[in-house]
Structures are given as structure tokens and as C-alpha cells.
Alcohol dehydrogenase (Bacteroides gallinaceum), 344 residues
Amino acid sequence: MLAYTYIEHGKFGLLDKPKPVLEDPRDAIVRVTLGSVCTSDLHIKHGSVPRAVPGITVGHEMVGVVEAVGTEVTNVKPGDRVTVNVETFCGECFFCRRGYVNNCTDPNGGWALGCRIDGGQAEYVRVPYADRGLNRIPDSVTDEQALFVGDILATGFWAARISEIAEEDTVLIIGAGPTGICTLQCVMLKRPEKIIVCERSDERIRFVRAHYPGVLAVKPEECRDFVRAQSRHGGADVVIEVAGADDTFRLAWECARPNAVVTVVALYDKPQVLPLPDMYGKNLTFKTGGVDGCDCAEILRLIEEGRIDTTPLITHRFPLSRIEEAYRIFENRLDGVIKVAIVG
Ligand SMILES: [Zn+2]
Ligand SMILES: [Zn+2]
């Protein structure tokens, strides 16, 4: 089968590999019907994910149809349409029992698919702990509607969940890329009084204004003054930093009011500075990534009810055989791309 593979630092390639087989009674094999390319795939390509293992099939954002299940799998059966979770988790360890599935102590716990074990930019993928990692897609929900449930939408949902958003709050989201937009949709479900999105790209600001007319959008250079003017207490009550650019961590805590929650979703390429003397007395609470992706069933229900719709993010579609082109467009942000769908 075709499998897009991390060959070495800076190089991915489309290889012919054997179809995966069940290796454990808790595994499932999924035929990938729709996948996507994530910024984290680019982080692997450029060497900022040291845990990534050369030779593995990349891709961790996908939906498909269950092809085979191990003898201990009870939640899904062959023929089921499913979302695949970016995270592998056992459901039983100290962290899993508390919902911190990103820190599952299983050797493959956390982000393993498409990083440390073969992922889903391929025709088939083996999913460990299939009872945890797969969620059935309701009949009325399409593959495109469900595509981001296991990764960037799970991330946005988790970020909104942990950020302690109240109805009287002004929430600032920094970054309107794909994960920023998913975060925005999940923050909107909390109905805060005001939502401000800070984004550098004019194209993405236009996207926010077109799709979410009640949301305020601002460029980074005007962000501090704008947020202060739009807030009752000198800054945003909640800041969610999704951008991960050189200066956005500083922007995040500078825009926060005293005693605010600052949630850091972004994965940075470089270490960030936490200048404690500068922020002394601000009494901020920082929450940091990555996602605990254990809310996929609830997210699918919200999609089914029409309360979350991420399909406008899919701007391009390619067959797996042309995945190189999909990467070129996504990586270089050509042609107004937000997300590409890889059709299996
Ligand atoms: Zn991802
Ligand atoms: Zn666990």
C-alpha cells in the first residue's frame, strides 16, 4: 500500500509498504478514507519533534472504516465509520483515569501515531487501544465534517474546556490558523461576552470576519491596545495562545488582565522566555499543551447537532497519490490554503 513516510530530517516520501496487521488483541486496522496534513507533520519534517522515528508513516488526523479488530475490541466492529484519535491511551493508568490521556504511561501513550508508530497518510493504519482511540461517526455526519475530531478539533475543545471561560469574559485567541479556528468554534460554545482573534494574515482575518461575524479580529501590532479597550479590567480574562510565533507568548501574557488564565496550546520551535520579574504581581495562571484528546464522542455529538462545523477549513482536496503536492501547498501556504484533505 502507499504510505507517506518520514525518511530523514527534511525528507518525506511516498513509499510502497506492506498493509498493517493486528499485533495485539486490542488493535484495530482502519482503511483510511480521508486524512489531512497537520502543522505537526511539518514539525517532524523539520526536526523539531525529536521523538519522531525515521521510517514511520506520518499522518495523525484521519477518518476511515474499520477493516479488522482484535479479539478484545468491543466498542467498534468491521464496517464502522470512525474517527481516529491522535493520541494513544490505555484508559487505565494514573493519568488516563484522571482524563490526562496525553500523559498515558503506556510505551505508546500520547502522540504516537504518525510520530513513533505508523500513522494514517496511508491506505491503512493500525490503531492500538482501538476501544479508546476510535469513535464511531454518526450516520448523518460526513467524513469531511468528522475529519478534524481526533486532532485539531480535540485540541480546540480541550483548550476551551481547561480555560475556565465565564459568560462575562473577554477571551483573546492568538492565531487563526486551523487549530485557532477550531479553538474559536469551541470557545463560542461557552458563550463569553466577547471573543477577540489576533492574527497576522489578512487572508485569515477575512476568513474569521466572513464566517464568524460576532467575533472581533485584530492584527498583532494593534492587539494590546485593542484588547485593553475591549476589556473591563485592563486585559483579557482568558487568553488562548495558539500561534506559536516568536513573539506571541509575550503577547499572550501582556494582553491578559491580572489573575487571568493563559492557556498555551502552541508548539514552539524555540524555547520561550518567562520573564517573571516583568509579570510579578499579575498573578497569572498558565496552562500548557498538549491536548488531552478524550472528548471525541462529545465533539461528534456537537457536530451531529450542527453546533460545530469545521468543513469551511477544508480548502483543498488531493488523492493520496498526489500528497507531495498537498504538502507543498500546505507548507508554503499557497492558494489561500487552510487545510488539505487527502482522499483515500
Ligand atoms: Zn496534528
Ligand atoms: Zn494510560
Q: What stands out?
A: The mean pLDDT is 97. Residues 152-162 form the longest helix (11 residues). Residues 156-288 form a domain with the Rossmann fold fold (CATH 3.40.50.720).
